[in-house]
Task: structure prediction
Amino acid sequence: MKGQNKLFIAIILSLVLGVVLGALVHFNYPKETIDSFSKNIKLLGTLFIRLVQMIIAPLVFSTLVVGIAKMGDMKMVGRVGAKAMTWFITASLTSLFIGLVIVNVTAPGEGTNIVMNVDDAQDLLKAHSEFSLEHFVNHTIPKSVFEAFSTNEILQIVVFSIFFGVALGAYGEKGKMVTDFLDRIAHVVLIMVNYVMWTAPLGVLGAVAAAVAKYGFEIFTLYAHYLVAFVLGILSLWVVLLIVGYIILGKRLKDLVRHIKTPLLIAFTTTSSEAVFPKLVEELEKFGAQSKIVSFTLPLGYSFNLDGSMMYMTFASLFIAQVYGIHMPIEKQILMLLVLMLTSKGVAGVPRASLIVIVATCSMFGIPPEGIALILPIDHFCDMARSMTNVLGNALATTVVDKWEGHIAIEQENI
Result:
């Protein structure tokens, strides 16, 4: 715990230093220098993210396979999976609904007069043009597990791992040697996690300094109405998640938040919930959750339970409609909510997945998809809150499922 606190302090100091350094560059140098600085300092963040990505595939595969195989009884796999999906679906619908309510109540897009840079949205529009049922199937089912590993397609790795784990469990005692081997692999990778996490302060410094240098503080003033409404939505979602968490976990909720404070901070500053996956596995096991439940539920959550991203999808889609003066009757908004519930599951693991889904949804409901350019300048800051919320949601989902499985360690403080 002492080492964890040192890491937390180092990240906080890096965050402050990143803001100061970025502000100095933004307010004292010309645009060419700012662009060059942002591009180069951001490499620190890229270094950290790539180190994490390096260990995610072997960690997801080994932990998920071991988690399923150790359950032994395939009925237990089905039972735990059903409980996990019940939480995921309920949390997703709740998150989408909160986004819908907040954007209607605050109406941040009404009366807005913003000049768009549509060129910034071209990559997302291109990504949307490739979004289809065929894309969903191709993105979900791997044609080669080696290709899935090489490209870090988490959802494809999860699908293969589930099949492999179920088959290994059905193999019985003869498969125990393979299970033990993968268990050892998982523990070695978790040791690597500790090494990699000490590069997190560098990642935070690079990501924050680049964002502040490029956008400065004006971005908060320019989009104050949008950011305030979005923060209100995120806070509302946090309140709901924490209340439900307290109802189920009781006083242990405080201990859970204490354990995941470093993953939350890393997700917030690096805008990547994926970056904290290995550390989150470690902290949830330290909290007392069964490793087999963590290994099974958490990877699924990263594909199906991104609460912060879900809230943002309805919020941003309807914000763009408001800016263009497009009236969306409530029945159409509810239909949009249900569509988002389905389409969002098809792009799990895709970079900037939330924005790609928003583009697809806008086109489907007659909202100009070019409106995505409206929110691109501040999406980095919104993504900070989205990523942190995704981590909280998956930590709660995993521990709640463990509690529903009757695990006593979740019901009381570790001694």
